[in-house]
Structures are given as C-alpha cells and as structure tokens.
Amino acid sequence: MVADGLVVTLAVVLLLVLIALRTPIFVALAVAGVAGLLGLGGFTAVELVPLALVSQLQEYALVAAPLYILLGEALAVSGLGRDLFRAAHRWFNRVPGGLGASAVGASTVFGAMSGVSISSVAVIGRMAVPEMLERGYKPGFASGAVAASGALAMLIPPSLMFILYSSITGESVADLFAGGLLPGLVLSAMMIVYIVVRAKLAPENAPVDPDRFTWRERIVAIGRISPALLLILLVLGSIYTGIATPTEAAAVGALAAFGVTGAIYHKLGWSNLKRIFVSTAQVTAAVLAIVGAAFVFTQMLVLARVPDAFTGFIVGLDVPPTVIMIGIMIVLVLLGCLVDAASLLLVVTPILVPAIEELGYDPLWFGVLLVVNLEIAVITPPVGLNLYTMKSVVPELDLADIFRGIAPYVAIEGLLLAIMIAFPQLATWLPGLLS
C-alpha cells in the first residue's frame, strides 16, 4: 500500500486543483476525501463514511444553525436594517466619516441578530453604500467599511462559525458566544476609529456631513430600533441566564423575528415569506453540504493520523509557543485567501485543536482566535464572499475599488489577532465570569 503520507499529500493536491478549477467547495472536499480514503483503506474505509456522516449531521448544536439563518433572513426583509443605519447616522453624523461609522455601527447591531456575514453586508450595504456614494464618499472607502464590518456577524454572537466549532470540539456554544462578544465590540470600535481618523486626515474620502439632528431625533431613532435591541436581549439574555440553551434561544429568536417583521414592519406578505424560507433553505443546504463534505475529508486525515502527527511535530519544536501560534495564524490567513471560512474551520479544527491543547492553550480562546482569522478570509480576494456580496448589492461598484477599500481592515483584523495572542483574557474573561 502507498505510504499514508503520500496519499494525504495527493489528496490535498487534488483538493487544491479542484478549487483552482472553481469546483464547488463541497464537491472538492468530498471527492478529495473519498479519494484519500480509498488510498488509505480501500472500499472498507469508504463504507464507514455514511454512518459517520449521519452521526455528524445529527449533532444537536447544528440544529441552531438553520434557526439563526431563519432569524437573519426574516429580519433582512423587515426594513430593520434601514432603521439601524438611520439611527446610527443620527448619532455619528457629527464625526468625520460619519456615514462610514454609522455603517459599522449598524452592522454591529445587525450582526448581533443574524450570525451570517453576507446577510449583514447585503442588508446594510444596500442602503449605506449608495447614500455614501451620493454624498461624495470614495467608492473604496464606502464599500470597505460595509464589507469589513459585515464580518462582525461571524464574531459577535449569535455566530454560525461558533456553532460549527462547537459541533467539532464539544466546547460550549454559550461560552463561545460570550468569548466572541468583547473581541467583536473591540473590533467594531477599532474600525470606527480608523474611519474617523482616515476621514479627518484625508477629507476627500468622506466629505463633511451637512445634516444636523436634535437630541430628540436621536432618542426617537433609538426607539425605532428598540425591537432589534429587545430581540438581542431576548436571545442572548435567555442563554446567559440559563433559561434556554443556544438552540432553544435560536428558536425563540426566529419566532420573535417573524413577530417583529410582521407586526411592526408589516412585511410578511406571501412573496416575502417565500423569499425568507427559500433563502433559508438554500443557505442551510449549502452550510450542511460543506459540513458533511468537510467531515469526509477530515475522516481521511484522522485515518492517516494527521492530527497526531501534527501535534507531535508542533510540541517537538524548540521554539516558544507564541511563535508557533503566530506561525499558525499566518498559515490560516494564507489558506483563507483560497478556501471559504466554513470549510477552512471544519478542516483545520480537528488538526489544530489537539496541538493547541498540548501547548497549554485554552481551546475556547483558540476558537475565538480562529473566527477572527476567518473574518479575514471573508474579506480577502480571490474567495472573500463579503467582497462579491458587496458587488452584487451595489453593482455600480468596481471590484478593484472594493479590494482597495478592504485592505486597511485586513490590517485592523491582524492587529486584533496580535492583541488577542498577547492578552487572551479578552476572549476568556467573560465566559469565566458567566460560568
């Protein structure tokens, strides 16, 4: 039989070739995984896949995924995104780059309800970017703020990425949600500070906003988004008070989202209902197809004992653990340029987590660190989904402008990674306080 190492290498090469040929990622993962299993154990190894696959997809934590997707899709048609942006604009309009800061603020709140980054980009971008362009904002400056801040939905709970990470590692979803909250808010603040400073130093990027709002108008705007704030409180509050599990909270949140969309915004006509359920089914099917295909590929890696070999190699290195962690982050950033976020998380987690634990790191902290890294994946070409979502909702934008506009935010995400490596308490303090 061919050496296991060679089989794994050939399977990885096959995966990269299929990705380069623009094969759907779930097909590429499944084909490469099955080919590797055949090389390692013949048809006997492949026969075990269906049972293991069903077992993986029956993971209780995964039930929350379609429910949070449903919640986000219901809110996407409600008009709540427009109210979020207008409310943020009334509070940020006096600062340089106020519309850009407003887009980040609106994305932060919407991300705390949706958990899916492309939904945030689509909902906020559809309103914020055209208004910024109309007021003279540079296309790259306008689109970069929305595409980057849309990724906050991956880090601020409820996050689909944390649900997937939990399904693999067994870490508590509630703890992961808590771990992502402070880094998410810090990242949002860093983005707003960048926008304000950049607009102050280079006013041609963002002309001064002539609008002026009274304190009464600002308070009224907060009142208009109170359903969103109550929905966040309902979902996260029920989790952290112990009233509901994350999955139960997702069901309650989805039901409440329908209530908000129907009773407050009156947007639950038949056409919108069809749009909500069709979009939810499509996104859920795509996510679960990737989960299943990635599991086949990781089964091949496990059969070849790749996680054990990697752990032994990492632990045996005569360098400080921090240096190893920085190296892992750099590799993940490069991989994120080639593979979508969900697939990357599902493939690398079973390999990296055992090594991380051997080095003495907290797997919960690493989960948050990994999701920050995946945020970079969704805003870096050529695979960055947020960039193409931005282009689809504002077609007049040039992709080159979007790519240029996103570059500073990649550096900001990198700075957050460095802060979290230096101060892991940023991710572990709140889970420890709530447990």
UniProtKB/TrEMBL annotation:
Ranges of residues in domain TRAP C4-dicarboxylate transport system permease DctM subunit: 12-426
Q: Where are the transmembrane segments?
A: 32-53, 60-81, 101-129, 141-164, 176-197, 218-243, 249-265, 277-303, 323-352, 364-385, 405-430
Per UniProt, what is the membrane topology?
A: Multi-pass membrane protein
Q: Where does it live in the cell? A: Cell inner membrane
Q: Which InterPro entries match?
A: DctM, TRAP_DctM
Name the keywords, alphabetized: Cell inner membrane, Cell membrane, Membrane, Transmembrane, Transmembrane helix
Taxonomic path: Bacteria, Bacillati, Actinomycetota, Actinomycetes, Pseudonocardiales
Query: Which superkingdom is the protein from?
Result: Bacteria
Q: What is its main location?
A: membrane
Q: What is this protein called?
A: Tripartite ATP-independent transporter DctM subunit
Species name: Pseudonocardia hierapolitana
The entry lists its GO molecular-function terms as: transmembrane transporter activity
Identify the Pfam families for this entry.
DctM
Instruction: Provide the Gene Ontology terms for cellular component.
Output: plasma membrane
